[in-house]
Structure formats: C-alpha cells, structure tokens
C-alpha cells in the first residue's frame, strides 16, 4: 500500500517537474531565437507586449496583475520598453489622473516580428506530433487551465 502511494506521489511530482522543464525549455528556445534575430527583448518584455497586443491599452497595475509581476518591477520594465519606443503612457480618458499603457506603431510591428519568431519555436517543439496529438495536447492543457482557473 505504501509503495503504491509513493509511486503515485512520484508520478505527480514527475508530471509537475516535466511541465516545468517543458516551459523552461520553451522559454529558453524563444529567448535564444529572439537574440539570434537581433531582438533585444526579455521574455517578460515579450509577454508584456503580447498582453498589450491581445488586450489593448491597460494600466500598469492591470498589466502587473495579468502577468503576475511585482508592480515596481513592472514600472521599471515599462520604462525600458517606453525608452525603446515600443509603448507609450497615455492619460486614461475616464480618469485623467491615471495612465494607460499602449503599444506604439513601432511596438506593434515589433510584436508581429517577435510573435512570428515565437510561433516558429513552438512549431519546432511540436514537430514530432501529428495533428491528432497536437489537438489532444491542446485539449488536455485547456482542461488543466480551466480546472486551475476555477479553483476556490
């Protein structure tokens, strides 16, 4: 009985470890690809641009919350992206005391380029999976995310 419980615990730990290692390897692959492409951008900056491209303008606090970043670190990162010309801070039309962060035209073009590079990395990672396996993997990952998102 104990060995069965230990085996089950090892399998869960192993699965969690495997998910973490896969994420780390994918992040590393994307970062290397971006660097080789001449893009001076970190994964956190990549994810910030992705969030703005997908959701549109938002406050620094909303970005920090969405990306699970420390608000202070988010402010520093936004300053770096703004200095590079990728985003700008605009007054919020509903509250002039607040600022909304939005992509500039340069930032939107950069997003298209780095998105293509990231998509190519993901494609390379999935090259050994056929269409049915890719669909199954996506279905399983979506179910896991749904379960985690609805935890109480």
Can you walk through the features of this model?
By secondary structure, the protein is mainly α. The chain has one domain (about 30-150): Arc Repressor Mutant, subunit A. Helix content is about 70%, strand content about 10%. The chain is built from 6 helices and 2 strands, in the order ααααββαα. It has helices spanning about 1-35, 45-55, 60-65, 70-85, 105-125, 130-150, and strands at about 85-90, 95-105. Strands 1-2 form a two-stranded antiparallel sheet. α3 packs across α4 (about 70-85). The mean pLDDT is about 90.
What general form does the structure show? globular
Query: What structural category characterises the helix and strand content?
Result: mainly alpha
Oligomer: single chain
**C-alpha Rg (nearest Å):** 19 Å
CATH uppermost class = Mainly Alpha
Summed up, the helix count is 6
Note the topology.
Blueprint: H1 2-36, H2 43-55, H3 60-67, H4 71-83, E1 87-92, E2 95-103, H5 105-125, H6 131-149
Antiparallel strand pairs: 1-2
